[in-house]
Each structure stands twice: as C-alpha cells, then as structure tokens.
Amino acid sequence: MTRKPIDMGALSHALQAPVEPDSAPVNLLAGALSKRPGSAKQGELEESPHLLAVREAVEGLRTGKLTPEEYYEAISTVHLQISELLGLFEMGQVQRELAKADEENRQLAERTRDGLQVVEQGLVRLVNYLESQETADLEEGLARVEAGYLDLDRTQDDALLLVEDEEDDDDEDEEDE
After folding, report:
1. 68 inside domain
2. Would 141 disulfide with which of 5, 44, 101, 125, CB 3.0-4.6 Å?
3. Which tens digit of pLDDT belongs to each residue from 106-118?
C-alpha cells in the first residue's frame, strides 16, 4: 500500500509566489505534488519574493529610501500572506487530512507551521521597530524571518525527497507486476 503524501508543494509554491495584497488563498489539498508539472522543482531560497520583499523593506528603511509608512505597508503585506497560510492549518478540511496522514507527513506539516510561525514572529518584531526605534528589533526581526524561511526551505527539501521516494516505490511496484 502506498501512502498519499499531503500536498506540501502547494504551500511551498505559495511561498514562491509574488507578494500581492489580494492574492487568492492557497489550497494545501490541491492534489498530489508529484502529479503537478514542474512541482518537483524547488526555487532557490534567495529568490523567495516574500523574503526579498522583507529584506528590501528593511534595507529601504535603513537607507531612507522608504518612509516608515512604505516600510510598514511592505512588511504588513508579507505578514498578511503568512497569517493566511497559518490560518490554513486551522481549517477543518486540513485538520481532517492531517489526522488521516502518516506520521512523516504530519511532521512535515508541523514543521511547515513552525517555520511560518517563526517568520510571523520576525515580521511582528520588524513592525515593532517603528514604535521602539530599537535597532535590535530591526536586526533580530530580520534574522528571525530569515531563520524561518531557512526552516521552510529545509522542510520543502524533505517533502520533495519524500515524494521522490514514494514515486520510486510506486515505480518498483509497477515493475513487479
């Protein structure tokens, strides 16, 4: 019996999507990752539009290229999308799918949620800088956002390996028939 992996690819694709304030919600349950053309290709962490938007906002504020209002808007846009992704984990349908999933897939989902929470905590710290004017809020907030994205990148790598292993198992099962 082969396990059906949770579609962690939909979430990782959302993290690679352009940062837009009115983007459509992500469907974690859109289907098996392996059946989506090009889904096994992972984007580079340094190319993540969300991470780039945060870095550019911090740098823009530091250099004076962005006003505090523009900085707040840029950080808030990313924060909104991260919050929406975190909200997906609370949806009944996602909870039911996770309850049916095997332990490995549940752990991947939990790691994804944890990574998103780290990013969110960093974004909150970056917004707090506007009130505190403490450089530590800016530096530690950005470090936390980067650490969260690194965790998400590692989780995506593991999810892709899981899918590849399951595809290899399926190929072997077909050859045995």
Report:
1. yes
2. 125
3. 888 889 899 999 9
Residue 149 identity (one-letter amino acid):
Y
Residue 81 lies in a domain: yes
Residue 107 lies in a domain: yes
The Cα–Cα gap between 47 and 132 comes to: 30
Residue 33 placed within a domain: no
Nearest Cα residue to 14 out of 73, 107, 81: 81
Q: How far apart are CA 23 and CA 20, in angstroms?
A: 5
14 C-beta neighbours (distance < 10 Å), count = 20
Contact 40, 33 (CB under 8 A): yes
- The answer for residues whose C-beta is within 8 angstroms of residue 101's C-beta and 6 or more apart is 6, 109
Which two structure tokens, joined as six digits, stand for 3? 């396990």
Domain boundaries, position 78 = 8-17+47-172
pTM of the model: 0.69
